[in-house]
Amino acid sequence: MEREVMAYDVVIVGAGPAGLSAAIRLKQLNSELAVMVLEKGSEVGAHILSGALFEARALDELLPDWQARGAPVRTPVSEDHVYLYRSETAAVKLPGFAVPAPMHNAGNYVISLGSLCRWLAEQAEALGVEIFPGFAAAELLYNDDSSVKGVATGDLGRDRKGQPKDSFQPGIELHAKYTLFAEGARGQLGKELIARYDLDSAATAQHYGLGIKELWQIDPAKHRPGLVAHGAGWPLSEHGATGGSFLYHMDDNQVAVGLIADLNYANPYLSPFEEFQRFKSQIEIRKYLEGGKRLCYGARAITKGGLNSLPKQSFPGGLLIGCDAGTLNFAKIKGIHTAMKSGMLAAETVSTALQAGDEGGSDLSTHDAAFKASWLYAELHQARNFGPALHKFGTFLGGAFNWIQQNLFAGRMFFTLKDKTSDHQQLRPAAACQPIEYARPDGVLRFDRLSSVFISNTAHEEEQPVHLQLLDSAKAIAVNFKEYASPEQRYCPAGVYEIVEEAAGPRLQINASNCVHCKTCDIKDPTQNIRWVAPEGGGGPNYPNM
Question: Which of 139, 354, 461, 477 is the one with CA 20 to 30 A from 501?
Answer without folding.
Answer: 461
